[in-house]
Amino acid sequence: MPGSTTNTADGSRAVVFAGFPVSSWVFALRVWLAMLLALYVSFWLELESPSSAALTVAVLALPTRGQGMEKAGYRLFATALGVAASIAIAGMFSQTGGLLLAVFGIWIGLCVYVAGMLDGNRAYAAALCCITVALIAIEQIDSPLQVFPTGVARGAAIGIGVLAVALVNEVLAAPDYHPVLASRLEALHRRVTEFAQAALRGEASSTTSAADMLRDIAALHPEIASLTTESSIGAARTAAARSAMVDLVGELSLARALAAVPAASATAGHDAEDGGSSLMTICRAQLRSEIMRRNADVRDSLAALRAGTHPLRQWRASLYRSRRIAAEGAVRAAIHFTLIAIIFVMAGWPTTELCLALAAVIIGLSATAPDPRAFTKLAVLAMPIACLLAGILKYLVFNGVSEFQLLAIGLAPVVIGTALLISLPSRALSPLGRLTLVFTLAVLAPSNPQSYDPEVFLVTCLFAQLSSVLVFAAQLLLPSLSGDRRIRLLLDEARRELSHPRARHLAPEEAAFREAARIEQILTANGGTTASPQVIVEAMRCFDQAVVLRRCCAELDRLAEGPLAAAAHEARAALARRDGRAILAAAEALRRTAAQAHAAADPVLAALVPAGIAFAPSQTPAQG
C-alpha cells in the first residue's frame, strides 16, 4: 500500500508513505527546496563557488530548526577561522615546499585535538577549521595568491546556504526540537524513578541498568545546546534541560547510595543508650528525603522546559574529555595526512591537490565520529556511489543542458532520496545517506554554466575515490585508538582522579554529571558492542566513589566551624585515607557528637555512610 499508519515510540500514530513517515518526506522536501534556493541565488550573484552553497545545505540537513541553526552558526564561525588560518599558513609557508605540507599536518592534528576535547557541533566546528584549510589552502597550494579570494568566495557561498536553510525552515515551519528532547528526558525520568523506587523498597541495585541510564542521560549533552537557537526563549529551555539532566544523574547516584546502605546495622544496639536512631537508619531516612527532593527538582525542570521558563535552580553540565585520548588521536591524524602527502610527493602526479584536500576532509570528519576507521569505511563505500550518481546526473540526466529548471528536476531524486536516508534512525544508513549527498554534490560541482568535460570528471572521480582509500590505508597502517585502549585510559584516569580530584570548582551535582559523561564514553568506546560486565562494574565503582567523595567534602565544609568542627576534621582525615572502616567510625563519632550538642548532622551522615561502604575493602557493586 502506498500509504499506511504505524505506531511511533511515544505511542502516537504516524502516516507512512512508501516506507517512510510523512515527516521524513517533508524533511527531504525542505532539503531539496533549500538547495535549489541556495544554487539559484549563487548563480544569480555569479559566485565563484556555488557548489559550496549546495554543500552547506547538505551539511545542515537536520530534521529540526534548532539543530540546523546551531550547526549553521558553528559553520560560519569555523569557516571564518579556517579562512584566516589559510591566509596565515599560505602567507608564511607558501615558498617552503615540504615544510608547507608539514604545517598542514600540524594544523590538522591541532584541529583534531580540539575536536576530541569537545562534542556535538562544537567538535564539528573544530573539524571544519581543518576542512576549510584543506579546501582553500591545500587546493591552492600552487597559487597562494588565490587563497584570499577563494576564501571570500567560499564564505559568501556558505552564507547563502545558511540563509537558504533558515528561510525554507521558517516558511515551511520546520519542527522544534524541544518537544522531542522533553519526551526523551521524561522517559529517562520514568526509568530513574523506577530505579529509585526499587532502592526505596530495599531491592537489589542493577549496576548494568544504572550504567545504561547514565549513558543515555549524558548522551543528550550535545543536543541540548541546539535549543538556544530555536527561539527567543531557547536559552531558558537549554538551562531547564541541562538542570534536568544533572538532577537525573543526582537522583540516580542517590538511589545507588541508598541501595548500598543496609537496612539494619550492628550499631542499632546503641539506640537505647543514645535515645536516637542508629547511623544506618538516619542515613537511609536522609537519603530517601533527598531522593524525593531531587525527583521534584527534575519534575520542575521538565515543566520549565515545556513552558520555556528558567528552572528554579540552574546547573552546569560539565563535559569530561580525556586529554590523553585527544592527543593520541591528533598525533595519528597528523601522521595519516603526512603519509598521504608523502605518497603524492613521491608519485609526482599532477593535479593531486583535490585528492589531498579530500583526504584532509575525511580525516577531519572522522575525528568527530566515535570510531574514525568505521567512518572512513563508510566514506570508502559512499564515494563510488556518489561518483556514479554524479555521472548519471551529468551525462544522462542533464546531458549538456544549462537551464536551471532542468537542474532542479534532475537533482530532486538524488537529494530527496539521500535526505530520506538521513532521516532514518539507523546508525549506518543515516550517515551513509549524508556522505553520499555531500560527496555527490562535491563531485558534480553544480556551476553556471555547467562543465561537461569527461576527462575532468573522470580525473575528479579517480582522485576522490583514491583519497578515501588512502585515508583508510593510512588508518590500517597506523590504527586509531581501539575501543579497549580508550576504556583502559578512561578507567586509569578515573582511578587517578580519586586520589587527586580535578574540577574542584564544580558543585557535587555538576561533578556527578561529569562522571556520568565518562561512563557514557566508556560504554560507547567500542561502538555498538556492549562493554564487558567487569568494565561496567569497575566504571560504576569509580563513579560511586567519586560522587560520594564530592558530597562528603561539600557537606563537611559546612561544618568547618561550630561544635562539630573537630569531628568533621576527623571524618575528613578518614576520607583522605580512603579507609572505609575509618570513615564509618568517624561518621558514628560525628553522630554521637551531634546528639550531645543537639546539632543537625543528618546530611553529613548521609554522605559519609555511603562513602564508608564505597571504600570498604570487600565492597563490590551489585551486578545486573
Structure explained in plain terms:
The protein is an all-alpha fold and 624 residues long. Among the domains are: 20-175 and 347-477, no CATH class; 178-307, Up-down Bundle (de novo design (two linked rop proteins)), CATH 1.20.1440. It has helices spanning 22-44, 50-59, 65-93, 98-116, 120-138, 147-171, 178-200, 207-218, 221-224, 234-260, 271-274, 279-307, 323-347, 353-366, 372-398, 404-422, 429-444, 454-477, 483-499, 508-523, 533-557, 565-577, 580-597, 602-614, and strands at 3-7, 13-17, 20-21. It has a three-stranded antiparallel beta sheet with strand order 1-2-3. Helix 7 (178-200) packs antiparallel against helix 8. The longest helix is centred in the N-terminal third of the chain and has 29 residues, at 65-93. The two termini are 44 Å apart. Mean pLDDT is 88; it is low at 265-276 and 620-624.
Please describe the topology of this protein.
Elements: E1 3-7, E2 13-17, E3 20-21, H1 22-44, H2 50-59, H3 65-93, H4 98-116, H5 120-138, H6 147-171, H7 178-200, H8 207-218, H9 221-224, H10 234-260, H11 271-274, H12 279-307, H13 323-347, H14 353-366, H15 372-398, H16 404-422, H17 429-444, H18 454-477, H19 483-499, H20 508-523, H21 533-557, H22 565-577, H23 580-597, H24 602-614
Antiparallel strand pairs: 1-2, 2-3
Helix pairs in contact: 1-2, 1-6, 1-16, 2-6, 2-17, 3-5, 3-6, 4-5, 4-13, 5-14, 7-8, 7-10, 7-12, 8-10, 8-20, 8-21, 10-12, 10-20, 12-24, 13-14, 13-18, 14-15, 14-18, 15-16, 15-17, 15-18, 16-17, 19-20, 19-21, 20-21, 21-22, 21-24, 22-23, 23-24
InterPro entries: PHBA_efflux_AaeB/fusaric-R (IPR006726)
GO molecular function: transmembrane transporter activity
Pfam families: FUSC
